[in-house]
Amino acid sequence: MAETQPQPNIPATNDVVSAPTKEHLGTRCGYCLCKTFWIFLVLVIILVMLVILVLYIIITPRSFRFHVTDAKLTQFDYAANTSTLNYNLILNITARNPNKKLKIYYDIVRANALYDGVRFSTTDVNMPWNSYLQDKKGTNLFSAVFSGQHVMVFDRNQVSDFHEDTNDGVFPIDIKIKFRIRFRLGDYISGHFNARATCELNVPFTDSNGKTVAATAFDSTKCQVDF
User: Fold this and answer.
1) pLDDT value, residue 5
2) Which has the closest alpha carbon to 220: 68, 7, 47?
3) Half-sphere exposure of residue 152, counting CA atoms within 13 Å on the CB side?
4) Residue 94 main-chain phi, psi, to 5 deg
């Protein structure tokens, strides 16, 4: 009997794998490049955000600190018949820059003095020169002088308060200061910032001999800064 020859193994039609076409390869390469690009872009964005966060933590401007260290009130007379207040008030002010990286330009520092809620004088805080530059972690002494007269119409309660304060020898005077400042980092100078400070003072009256009428002297007062 003749031997049966083995039949060749012919793959089924469904098992035939066709070679990838150029269009298919191009699509896959484009997908890989697009995916890589987006991953790279996300990493760059995250890195930039981290750098900004670190710089913000390190360089964020911190509010300056103001203290009225001394106050001398040598005249504070109210004439009811003319509704005129005559005054002479001198303040010594300490300003501190708490920033480690930033210097501060004080372009405008203007102070208003108020008694019993009524403004009686406005003056510029005396500085060595205009646009005074305060160094990093620096502390400087400035002064403000309020002197002159101002027409103030007091009601009955305010007149009573004034007489009481005169007898006590201590006058509650509020100082409201407006600032226009800039910050400097190296050679970079920022735009202008507006800030305010309120100093609630109890100022003893000082007579012509330089002695305070009240038993207590002036206490150094920290100003509340709104920046």
Assistant:
1) 56
2) 68
3) 25
4) -105, 125
Indicate the length of the chain as a whole number.
Answer: 227
* Sequence-distant (≥ 6) Cβ neighbours of residue 85 within 8 angstroms: 76, 77, 78, 79, 115, 120, 149, 150, 151, 152
Token pair of 143 as six digits = 């002064």
Instruction: Name residues whose C-beta falls within 8 Å of residue 182's C-beta, 6 or more positions apart in sequence.
Output: 104, 105, 107, 189, 190, 191, 192, 193
| pLDDT tens figures, 16-41 | 445 555 555 556 666 677 778 788 88
In sequence order, what DSSP letters do the residues of 97-166 get, joined into one string?
---SS-EEEEEEEEEEEEETTEEEEEEEPB-SSSSEEEPTT-EEEEEEEEEEEEE----HHHHHHHHHHH
What number is the average pLDDT over the span 104-112?
93
Give the span between the Cα atoms of 85 and 158, in whole angstroms: 13
Q: How far is CA 158 from CA 127, 153, 155, 164, 192, in A?
A: 34, 9, 5, 10, 39
Identity of the residue numbered 93: I
Residue of 163, 181, 79, 170 whose CA lies nearest to 125 = 181
77 — phi, psi (to 5°)? Answer: -115, 135
pLDDT digits (tens, 9 = 90+) for 169-217: 999 999 999 999 998 888 888 889 899 999 999 999 988 777 777 777 8
- The first and second tokens of residue 216, run together, are 């207590």
Considering Cα of 109, then 115, then 117, then 119, what sign does the dihedral take?
Answer: negative
